[in-house]
Automatic annotation (TrEMBL):
The keyword Transcription regulation applies. It comes from Berkelbacteria bacterium GW2011_GWE1_39_12. Residues 8-64 form a coiled coil. PANTHER family: TRANSCRIPTION ELONGATION FACTOR GREA. Necessary for efficient RNA polymerase transcription elongation past template-encoded arresting sites. The arresting sites in DNA have the property of trapping a certain fraction of elongating RNA polymerases that pass through, resulting in locked ternary complexes. Cleavage of the nascent transcript by cleavage factors such as GreA or GreB allows the resumption of elongation from the new 3'terminus. GreA releases sequences of 2 to 3 nucleotides. It comes from the Bacteria. GO terms for biological process: DNA-templated transcription elongation; regulation of DNA-templated transcription elongation. This is Transcription elongation factor GreA. Residues 2-70 form the Transcription elongation factor GreA/GreB N-terminal domain.
Length: 147
């Protein structure tokens, strides 16, 4: 899995926050046990479900962090992971940061290099005209800026 440095940092922050919740969840389980019959104890069931989710996510994040390949933008003139690309899409200026799939957040301008737009931009340079193959058809655009 490819990540930018900021993407790796966000995963580490999420992992630390989840690990910090362990004690709180354990206390909720302990308190719920004191209510008696566990078979009809919804508070106990909710706490156990939350514990299960948190532990699963911790394992997932640990694995992601261990296997992550952090890509550092080398300052080249071609669009690559970590590049910030401004394009002209049908007379509409749009700026995207090219990121790995796990960092993708189109609402914040972060698109995956595995998406049709992200993939189409890879390897191209400022001033180049390219075609982006979308499910709805082909979109012609021009790379206006590349950082």
């Amino acid at each position: 899995m490819f990540l930018t440095q900021s993407g790796l940092q966000k995963l580490k922050e999420e992992l630390a926050a989840l690990k910090g919740r362990r004690k709180e969840i354990a206390e909720r389980i302990k308190t719920a046990r004191e209510f008696g019959d566990l078979s009809e104890n919804s508070e106990y069931e909710d706490a156990r479900n939350e514990q299960s989710f948190v532990e699963g996510r911790i394992q997932e994040l640990d694995e992601m962090i261990k296997t992550a390949k952090v890509v550092v933008k080398n300052g080249g003139d071609k669009a690559e992971l970590g590049s910030i690309v401004t394009i002209d899409m049908s007379n509409d200026k749009v700026t995207y940061e090219l990121v790995g799939a796990n960092e993708s957040d189109p609402s914040k301008g972060k698109i995956s290099i595995e998406s049709p737009i992200g993939h189409s931009l890879l390897g191209h340079i400022k001033g180049e005209k390219i075609q982006i193959h979308l499910p709805s058809g082909i979109l012609d655009c021009k790379i206006l800026d590349l950082k």
